[in-house]
Design a protein that fits this description.
Two copies of one chain form a homodimer. With 701 residues, chain A is an alpha/beta fold. Chain A folds into four domains: 285 residues, Rossmann fold (3-Layer(aba) Sandwich); 160 residues, 3-Layer(aba) Sandwich (Rossmann fold), CATH 3.40.50; 105 residues, ATP-grasp fold, A domain (Dna Ligase, domain 1); 114 residues, D-amino Acid Aminotransferase, Chain A, domain 1, CATH 3.30.470. Chain A contains 24 helices and 30 strands. In chain A, strand 25 and strand 26 form a beta hairpin. In chain A, helix 7 packs parallel to helix 9, helix 10 packs across helix 16 and helix 11 runs parallel beside helix 16. The first copy, chain A, is flat, with a radius of gyration of 33 Å. In chain A, 53% of the residues are buried. At the A-B interface, helix 5, helix 8, helix 11, helix 15 and helix 21 of A face helix 5, helix 8, helix 11, helix 15 and helix 21 of B.
C-alpha cells in the first residue's frame, strides 16, 4: 500500500512529547501507548529523560535505528528546523499537528511552502500541517487526540475538519461502529484527499471510504482517482461550504478556495461518489456498505407489524426512487394461508401488531426466497406481544442463510427494542430507530449498486474534427489581442468540430454574396446592413428564401437598386447573407471553466425562460454518450423534446451529438474559458439542430 | 375543557378486564393501576371476582355510582350490546379498543355505524374503534398498552397509527421527553383529529399538539379549528400516505380515503400547521416549542469550537432561509479583545478547539446581549481542553438570564458529551447530536414565529359581483342536463364576477354581429365559420381590428360577398365575432374540488410549458389578498412577471384581483367542480389581463 510509512510505520518519533497531562504532546504519547502500538515509540523533548515510561530523546538525530514516521507538535516557528533534521535523519513521513501555517494568513502560507519544500528535498511526505493526526486500528496506531481508540473495522474516514473528526471518533465509540483508519487532512500542504483515497483504495482492509471535504484543489485528479477506486469500494462524501455563507465560513477556516457547489456535485456524480446530506447519513451509509451485500435488482419488500410506519417507509421509498416489488400470487397465497386474516399480503406486508418472532421469521423467509425480491426492510414496533430480541435473532439467522440479499431493520421505540437493536448491529445487520434513516440508507445502496452495474462509459470522440483549424483561429484571435471570438470565427470553430451553426456574413458585392451563400448552404436570406435604414422590408431591403446562386445575384442587385431609389443618401455597410433558419424549439448550451474541475458543460431550455426557470443541467467534460443523454433527461425540457400533447418529438440524437462535440472541443482546448450557444433550435426527428448565435471567450494569456 | 369524560374521568370501567398476564384486558388494568389513577377503576369480567386486587363486576350495570368512561376490549361481536348497556348506565364516553370494524371491510363498517348510532342515542362520544387507547399524565390515566408511563410534560400527541404511538411512547421514555397526553384515533368512527385538536387547544397544560395523520375527513372544519388553535399553540403534523404507493398502503390500512398530498400541504399551510418530514423531527420540534421562547426576529448567531460543523450548520441555515446576523463592529471588537488571535469573530463565531467553558459563556453572553441577535446556536465538539458539562451549565444559566431568546445546542460526539447533553435536555435546553437536527428545529421555530407575527388575513370579498346571475346560468345549464358550460355561459359567469374574459360569438346576420361587437367591446375580429373553408384569410374570410358598429356591418357583408364569390358551395355556420386580443404573457388559472378540503385554486405559467414545467401553485379558497400574492410569488413565473432583462413588468395587481375573484366565485358556488382559465394573457402595468378560454364544469346533481 501507498503511504506505508504513515499507515504502517515500524517506528514513530513524537516531537514535542510532554510530561504534562492535558498537553498535546502528552496526550499523543499516551494515546500511542494505549493503542497498543507494536513498533518503537520515541518521545523527543530536550528537557525530559522519560515520558510515560518511555526513554526520551533530546533530538530526532539521537534516535537509533530506522525511523519511519515523525509526528510534530511544537510551535510553528521551530517546525522548519525539525523538518530539516528529520530529513537528514532519513525519516519517511511527517505528521505535522502544529498550527500557525496557511490558516493564519500570508506569513503562515510562506512557512508552509518552505516546510513542503524541505520535506520534498528529502522525499518525505507530509500530512498537515494544522491537522489532528491519524488513527489506524489495524496497525494499532493512534496519533490523534481521541481518548478512546475506536474498535477495529473497515471504514476509512478522511476529514478536512479535525474537530469534526474528533466528535465523530467519540460518537462511533458510543455507537459501537468499527473504524479502519481516520485521517485529519489539516491544511493539505502536501498530502491531500486524493493521496489518501488512493492509499485507502489500495488497502484491502478498507471497505468504504468516507470524506468530509470543504475544498478540492486537484479536481481533475480527484475525479480520475475516485472513479477508479469506487469500482472497488464505495466513497461517500459530505461537503461543507455548499451555501454562499457556508463557503465564506469555509474560506475563513482553511484559506482554501471553495468552488461552486454545482461543480462539486457534478464532479462527485462523474466519479460515482455518493453525496451524503448529513454526518449521520455518512455513517449510516458506511455501516450498511461494510456489513451488507449490495442489492442485485430493484425489488424491495417491506415487512412490518405496524401500518403507520409502513406507510411512512413506503412514502419515502417512492420519493427516493425505490421500487416496492409486486409480490407474485403464489407467495401471496402462501402468506395468506399462514398470516392472520386482517394481515395485508401486499407490499408492505403487514403481519399485524400481535406478530411474534416466528411470524416475522416466517414472512421474511417467504419473501426473501422470491427471485423478484432483492432487499428487505423489516419494521418492528413494540406491541404487547412483540418479541423484539427473538425477532432480531431470527433476522440475523436469515441474513446468514440468505447472505446475498441486504436486510435493513427499523426497530422503532426505546427501551423495549434496545437490546434487539444492539444485537442486530453487533451481528452485522444495520438497525435504525426511524423509517427515514433506514430507507435513505437503502436508497444509497441502490445508487451504488446501479452505478456498479453500469459499464464504464468512455468519453465520446469524433474523428471528423479539425483541431488544427481551431488552433489557427484561436491563435489569430490572440494575435489581435482579443479574448472574444468574432461571430464568423466562432462559427468556423463550430464548423471545425462538426457543430451545425449559422451566422451573418457581410457581402459587399454580388459575387461575394454568392460565395457566402454557397458556403452557408441554401436557402439563404439577404438583408441590407445600414445604420440608417430601420424599416428594411418596407424599402425592399430584405429577400427571403433564396434558393440558388443565380437568385442570390438577382436579389443582391434588386436590394441595391431599391436602396438607391428610396434612400440614396443612406450609408451602406453591405448586404448580410445568412442561412434561412426556421424557428425550432429553443434550447441553450454552454460551458464555463470551473477552477477545480475544468470545463463544465451546460444544456437546457432556452428562450426567455432560461433566466427564470433555470431548467439546465451540467456535466464535466469530456463527456460520454450516456452523460450527454443524462444531461438532457435531467431537464424538464426533455418531456417537451420527447413530444407531448400531440407535438412531434424533436431530434434528440442531433442534440446529444452537439453536446458531445461541444464537450470534445472544450476538452481539446482548455484555453476556451466560456462558451454560449444561445439559442440552439432543434427540429423534428432526423431534421437536426442549429446554433444561431455562438459566443466563445478564451484566456487572455 | 371539552372531552372531560375522556381526559379527566372520575371513574373508569374496563370492559374485558382479564386476569391473564399478557392479555390486553390485563395490561390495561395493570397500566391504570400503575399510572396512579386517583379515581375509581372498575374491571368488568363475568367470570372473575377480582383482577390485580380490584373488585370485578360481571356487567357494567352492576357498577355503583357515577361512571364517566368505559374502555371496551372485547371481541367486536359483543361491542354493540355492551355499548347499549353503557348508554343505559349513563356512561359519558367510550374508548373502543376492539378491532373488527371498518378496517376489515363492509361488514365491519356496518357494525361501526351501528356503534356510533347507539352511542349517539345516549349522548356518549366514542374514541376508536380499533384504537390503542389514551394516556393523560396530568390525570394519571393510562388506558393504553404502553408499559411505561411517560413523564409529565406539555406535549399532546394524536396518532392515526396506534403502533406508531406505541413506538413513540417507548422512545420518549428513553429520551426522557415529557408528554401531556397521547390519543390513538383508531378508525375515527365518532371522535376524530378535529375533536381532539379542539380539546387540546382548550387545555392550558398542552403547549404543543403533534399529529400523525393518514387522512382527514372533515377538511374544512380541520382548517377552521386548527387555524384558531395555532394562534395559541403550535400544531406539528406528519402525514402518512404522501406517495401514491403510500396512499395505497394507507388505504388498505384504515379504509379511509387519502386525499392528494398537494391538498393536504395547502390545507396545513392555510391553517398555519407545521409539516414535519419525519417522526424524529416531529419530536425535535415539539421539545423546542415546549421549552424555548420563539425568536423575536430574524437574526441567528452560531457559536462554535469547530470550523467544519460550523460550516455544515451555516450551509443548512442558508438552505432553510435562516439569516446569520452580521455582528456589529462593537461586539466584534470586544470579542477580538478576549478571544484568541486565530478565532473568527464573524458569524459563525469560531472560538477555536481549545475553548474552555468560560470562553463559551463569555462569547455567548456577548452575542446574546446584542439587539440584532434573536437566537443562538451553540456547537461543541469534544477537543482536548473541552469542558462539556461546565459549558452546558454555563448555557443553562445564560438561558435563565436571557429567557427571551432561544438557545439550541449541538453537542457532537458520544461519551464525552453525553452528560452535558443530558444536563441540557433536563434543564430545558434542546440539545442535538448533529448540526442538521438543530438547524431544522430552529427553522421550524422561525416558521411558526413568522406565522404568529403576521396578522390574520381575512378572505377578500368584492361587492360588485352578481351571484344571482351566475345562479341563473348554472340552473339553466343543469336544466339542459349539461355539466359543462357553453363558452358564452362561462364568459357570462366571468363577467358576473368581474373577471375580464373573451369568447367567440357566432352571428348569422350583420345586425347580430353588430350587437355582439357592442357587447364585447371594440376593436373586434370577424371570421367566417365553415368546416369547408380552411384558408380563411386567402378568400377574404377574416377582418381584423374593426373599430365601430358601422365597420362591423361593412366587414360582415364583405366577408359574405367574398365567400359567395370564391366558395359558393361552402356550408356556412355564420361569422364569429370576438374581441381583438393582443398576445400577452401566457398564464393559467384554474380550480378543482378536493374531496376533503374544497376548492383548490391554481395559478401558474401557461402555454406549452405548463404541462412539463408544472410551474404552478395552489391555495384553498376563499383566498385572502396575501394568499393570492403568495400564489404568484411561489411560481418561478413571478420573476418574469416582475420584469426581467429589460422586459417591462406585468400587471400583477390585475392578476391578483383575478385570482381573488375566481376564488370568490368558487367559494360562492360549491357546485362548480372544475374550472380552467387557459390561457390568461397579462399585459403591462395598468393594462390588465384577460382570460381567452374559460371552461367551467359543475356537478351533475
Amino acid at each position: 500500500m501507498k503511504l506505508d510509512a504513515l499507515f504502517r510505520p515500524k517506528s514513530v518519533a513524537i516531537i514535542g512529547a510532554s510530561r504534562t497531562p492535558g498537553k498535546v504532546g502528552n496526550i499523543l504519547t499516551r494515546n500511542m501507548i494505549e493503542a497498543g502500538f507494536q513498533g518503537e515509540i520515541y518521545p523527543v523533548n530536550p528537557s525530559a529523560d522519560e515520558i510515560l515510561g518511555l526513554k526520551t530523546y533530546t533530538s530526532v538525530k539521537e534516535i537509533p535505528g530506522e525511523l519511519d514516521l515523525a509526528v510534530i507538535a511544537i510551535p510553528a516557528a521551530y517546525v522548519l528546523g525539525v523538518a530539516e533534521e528529520c530529513g537528514e535523519r532519513g525519516v519517511k513521513a511527517l505528521v505535522v499537528i502544529s498550527a500557525g501555517f496557511k490558516e493564519i494568513g500570508h506569513e503562515g502560507a510562506l512557512l508552509e511552502k518552505q516546510l513542503v519544500e524541505i520535506s520534498g528535498r528529502y522525499g518525505m511526505r507530509v500530512q498537515g500541517p494544522n491537522c489532528l493526526g491519524l488513527i489506524n486500528t489495524e496497525s494499532q496506531l493512534n496519533l490523534s487526540f481521541a481518548p478512546a481508540m475506536p474498535k477495529a473495522g473497515r471504514i476509512g474516514f478522511i476529514s478536512q475538519s479535525g474537530a469534526l473528526g474528533t466528535a465523530v471518533l467519540d460518537w462511533i465509540v458510543k455507537e459501537n461502529i468499527g473504524f479502519h483508519s481516520f485521517v485529519s487532512l489539516g491544511n493539505k500542504g502536501d498530502l491531500d484527499e486524493v493521496d489518501f483515497i488512493e492509499a485507502m483504495g489500495e488497502d484491502e482492509d478498507v471497505r468504504v471510504i468516507l470524506l468530509y471535504l470543504e475544498s478540492i484543489d486537484r479536481g481533475r485528479r480527484f475525479i480520475e482517482v475516485a472513479s477508479r477506486v469506487v469500482r472497488d469500494k464505495p466513497i461517500v462524501v459530505i461537503k461543507g461550504g455548499t451555501s454562499s455563507a457556508g463557503a465564506r465560513a469555509a474560506g475563513s477556516h482553511t484559506g482554501a478556495l471553495v468552488g461552486s457547489f454545482v461543480a462539486y456535485k457534478t464532479a462527485f456524480e462523474k466519479a460515482g461518489v455518493i453525496l451524503a446530506e448529513s454526518v449521520e447519513e455518512l455513517f449510516n451509509y458506511a455501516v450498511a456498505f461494510t456489513e451488507q451485500p449490495l442489492p442485485k435488482g430493484e425489488g424491495v419488500v417491506i415487512v412490518t407489524n405496524a401500518g403507520g410506519p409502513g406507510i411512512l417507509a413506503t412514502d419515502l421509498s417512492e420519493r427516493l426512487g425505490l421500487r416496492l416489488t409486486n409480490l407474485g400470487s403464489e407467495v401471496r397465497g402462501r402468506l395468506m394461508g399462514r398470516l392472520p386474516e386482517a394481515a395485508s399480503v401486499g407490499n408492505p406486508v403487514d403481519i399485524l401488531g400481535d406478530a411474534r418472532a416466528d411470524l416475522y421469521t416466517y414472512a421474511i423467509e417467504e419473501v426473501i426466497s422470491e427471485e423478484s425480491v432483492n432487499a428487505i426492510v423489516v419494521i418492528l414496533t413494540p406491541q404487547a406481544m412483540t418479541e423484539s430480541l427473538e425477532t432480531a435473532q431470527g433476522i440475523v439467522a436469515l441474513q446468514r442463510k440468505h447472505g446475498d440479499k441486504p436486510i435493513i431493520c427499523i426497530f422503532m421505540g426505546g427501551g423495549r427494542v434496545q437490546t434487539a437493536d444492539e444485537y442486530l448491529r453487533s451481528n452485522g445487520v444495520p438497525s435504525f430507530d426511524f423509517p427515514e434513516k433506514g430507507i435513505k440508507t437503502l436508497a444509497a445502496m441502490y445508487e451504488y449498486a446501479r452505478f456498479m452495474e453500469e459499464p464504464e462509459h468512455p468519453p465520446a470522440r469524433f474523428d471528423d474534427v479539425d483541431p488544427e483549424r481551431v488552433k489557427g483561429i484561436l491563435e489569430s484571435t490572440r494575435r489581435d489581442s482579443r479574448v472574444v471570438l468574432l461571430a464568423n470565427e466562432a462559427a468556423e470553430v463550430m464548423e471545425a468540430y462538426g457543430v451545425n451553426s449559422t451566422r451573418d456574413m457581410l457581402a459587399s458585392s454580388a459575387e461575394e454574396a454568392e460565395r457566402f451563400a454557397d458556403e452557408l448552404g441554401y436557402p439563404v436570406v439577404l438583408k441590407i446592413v445600414s445604420p440608417e435604414i430601420l424599416h428594411k422590408t418596407d424599402i425592399g431591403g430584405v429577400h427571403l428564401n433564396i434558393g440558388s446562386a443565380d437568385e442570390v445575384r438577382t436579389a443582391f442587385e434588386a436590394i441595391m437598386n431599391s436602396v438607391y431609389t428610396f434612400m440614396p443618401q443612406a450609408k451602406i455597410h453591405g448586404v448580410a447573407v445568412s442561412r434561412m433558419v426556421t424557428p425550432g424549439k429553443e434550447l441553450i448550451m454552454g460551458m464555463s471553466q470551473d477552477v477545480q474541475f475544468g470545463p463544465l458543460v451546460m444544456f437546457g431550455l432556452g428562450g426567455i425562460y432560461v433566466n427564470f426557470l433555470k431548467d439546465v443541467s451540467f456535466r464535466l467534460a469530456p463527456l460520454s454518450e450516456r452523460e450527454a443523454q443524462e444531461m438532457m433527461e435531467e431537464t424538464r425540457a426533455y418531456t417537451l423534446l420527447k413530444g407531448i400533447r400531440g407535438e412531434p418529438p424533436s431530434d434528440i440524437d442531433a442534440l446529444r451529438e452537439t453536446i458531445l462535440r461541444v464537450g470534445q472541443l472544450v476538452s481539446d482546448f482548455p484555453e476556451i474559458v466560456e462558451m454560449d450557444l444561445n439559442p440552439v433550435f432543434v427540429y423534428g426527428v432526423g431534421e437536426g439542430c442549429i446554433a444561431l448565435d455562438v459566443k466563445i471567450t478564451i484566456t487572455g494569456d
